[in-house]
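S.,

Sequence below, as promised.
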Amino acid sequence: MLQALSRIGRRRAFQACAALVVVLGLLLWWLLPLGPSEPTGTLTFSTGVRSGVYQRYGERLRGDLAKDLPQVSIRLQTSEGSQQNIARVASGKADFTIATTDALATYLSSGKPGADLLRGCVRLYDDYIQLVVPRDSGIRKVSDLRGKRVGVGQRGSGVRLVADRVLAAAGLDPEDDVTPVPSGIDTMPEQLEDERLDAFFWSGGLPTTAVQELAGRFPIRLVPLEARLVERLQATGGSARYYRSAVMPADAYRNAQQGQAVPTVAVSNVLVTTKHSDPALTEAFTRTVIDSRDRIGSEVHAAQLVDLRTAIYTDPLPLHEGASRYYRSVKP
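The prediction came back faster than expected:
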């Protein structure tokens, strides 16, 4: 009889403990947040020169990221452009950046440190190669640059990469047949005005504010880059396959183009990180880029061209796991 009562007592004690565990579990479920925790910490976003599209886009994107990722501090870091941006991310000196596909393909093929770590998040907008000269200049085609002082972009920029290639495709040695001036878009317009340059190359989204402002105060013209020049570029193979023929619309720079569309070369941009980037953070970053398109696009026109249908195509980089997770979440 006593043994039976003891068994009943132990059973009731066990049941009471089990009930307590259930109650505590329900209480924890109620009190603790559901789902994965929000990303935290600090990230560095490498952009571009202060008056370029990368920097203007980055400044506005930072505002949207601050709203969507309130526990993450976003630090913008100016740069010379695509080539320096890629090197920073590959070496861990920056977490995210923007770079052109030709510069990315060049970095990958070179086998430089960290090349295998690079991952894509979003295919963004296209850069258009712009060769700017004074309106009364005798320069009508790229080969006319022989013997001229030409702004070719800073050494770490994507401008420098494509300018050298365009000059070579036109039969010019980029070092010997022109006087190359390694300036950025923050100084080249003023140098053209002051007659310290005869021409300058720029690679950026349309319109680039620095070129637009120059056209408003000084008579300039855009030199056409004809389709046969693009064919010569592409014929060199390798990363040059990312160049394609394009046309700058007549209203891109009204004062400079005077109602004329201008043939040129285009290359796409990609939002870049590494495979070590936190998937939750990368997913949230990618979502903000897509969701902020229209708001940022009202101030930085190039951002309007970010398209969810093509954003996933980040060739030559594989897609980051977090970005892939985002695209799956919005797939119809």
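The longest helix spans residues 2-31.

Coffee later?
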